[in-house]
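can u pls check wat happens w/ 4'-deoxy-4'-aminopyridoxal-5'-phosphate
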Amino acid sequence: MKIFLNGKLVDKSHATVSVFDHGLLYGDGVFEGIRSYGRLIFKLDEHLDRLFESAKAIELGMPMTRDELTKAVIKTLKANKLEDGYIRLVITRGAGDLGLDPRKCKAATVFIITDKIMFYPDEYYKRGLHVIIAKTKRNLKDALNPQIKSLNYLNNILGKIEAIKAGKEEAIMLSNEGYVAECTGENIFIVKDGMLFTPPPDIGALKGVTRLAVIGIAKKDKITVKEELIKPEDLYAADECFLTGTAAEIVSVTKIDEHVIGDGRSGKLTGKLLKEFRKLTKTEGVKY
Ligand code: PMP
């Protein structure tokens, strides 16, 4: 496997970074997870937009232009002969000293890993995920805004650990005020009376690329989409519930805590949206 590392393609065994890299020492960096389908990179522009916004939010000067990053992603995909791939694009603050001061990091580290996509088991899509509502709250917007896709994922990992301990697949994270924010690595939607509801990202959630694609599909299908504050009770009373993310695409949730959602099987509208989403991934994207 070839990895793009600071301008060069290197073998996986030589793709190493310094132990003084602040990405490693402090989670000081930003990243994106992107997918390609049949040699089409899905929503690359949207992912690059978010990457640059995240970098700006942490005052990380981007060492490469959008065009250079696009070329590097394509080069890495081609080197690994991937037609359908998962792309992990990472920019760290770079190597510095043991203090926090980012000015000590003279050059950002850039690496791109492309690999085969790891699918969730098919069963998850049929029976849906069983999830909990985590006790760990999503990061406060005014402390570490969840809209920044930074390398600091401990908040999400603590939520994931709760899910694992409970023997469930995912955890829904609430804002400090108790409103539904998102899952540890996906956005969340509910279906009620034929309408779609999803939390506004301002509550403290990542502006998911898949989330936006799903909203676009729904609007085209004349399905009402409302970005509204959602409480746990609204989740329990939903007709359907699903999560969206680059890796998961659209995956049903059929049990939240002890509450069965709908009839306990993946819902009709969820299935229809997934079908249309998959159609989209086959027809649009940056060709390589
Ligand atoms: N929320 C979080 C915390 C995530 O890490 C992700 C996946 N990167 C998402 C939502 C979904 O975003 P996207 O659809 O852009 O993959």
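The first helix runs from residue 22 to 26.
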